[in-house]
Specification:
Blueprint: H1 2-20, E1 28-35, E2 38-45, E3 78-82, E4 86-88, E5 91-93, E6 96-103, E7 111-115, E8 130-135, E9 137-139, E10 145-154, E11 159-167, E12 169-177
Antiparallel strand pairs: 1-2, 2-3, 3-6, 4-5, 4-12, 6-7, 7-8, 9-12, 10-11, 11-12
Length: about 180
């Protein structure tokens, strides 16, 4: 009988622990690709729409100037690593580690911000650490993009595209591995 009770208690404890471990609201994600033999990696936290208004007045990400840039993800700042020197939409990006932000003040014309500061929380932004800014090509997805995602697409040879999509926005920047 004691053995039965001990097993029953262990089973209940395991079920309780498993149910308490639910997925975080903005899980960690990684986008990576090898282009022309060089690896590029973006690490970010992926929030979901969950019925909320994301962009615009009253949205989660405001188009006004209450914040100089959007962290382009959730939680810790979005990190970007490149094993190679890049031409990212006309911006020369030396191989190394960076943080990505986005200026979304104009909902139809986003700008990708490549910042040299790394390891900070997502809301920590120091404009004096900007490597540079790049205009993004905007498009509309065929349907709602529920969960934010980044992708790095191989376009053949040394060419690729870095893409960010969420809600009703897709923003892309072409790049070339030097």
């Amino acid at each position: 009988m004691k053995l039965f009770l001990a097993l029953a208690c262990c089973s209940l404890l395991m079920v309780g622990t498993a149910s308490a471990q639910k997925a975080p609201p903005s899980p960690a994600r990684t986008a990576t690709a090898t282009i022309d033999g060089q690896t590029l990696t973006i690490k970010y936290s992926a929030p979901s729409v969950r019925g909320r208004q994301i962009f615009g007045p009253g949205g989660l990400v405001s188009h006004d100037r209450t914040a100089p840039v959007w962290r382009a993800g959730a939680n810790a700042a979005t990190s970007f690593h490149t094993d190679a020197d890049l031409d990212l939409g006309g911006l020369s990006v030396p191989k190394g580690d960076y943080t990505l932000f986005a200026d979304v003040q104009d909902p139809d014309h986003w700008t990708l911000v490549v910042n040299k500061q790394t390891g900070q929380w997502g809301l920590t932004y120091n404009a004096s650490q900007d490597l540079g800014r790049v205009k993004m090509e905007m498009s509309t997805p065929p349907s709602l993009v529920e969960t934010l995602y980044y992708s790095i697409q191989d376009k053949g040879g040394s060419k690729g595209v870095l893409q960010l999509a969420w809600e009703h926005h897709v923003a892309s920047v072409p790049f070339t591995v030097k």
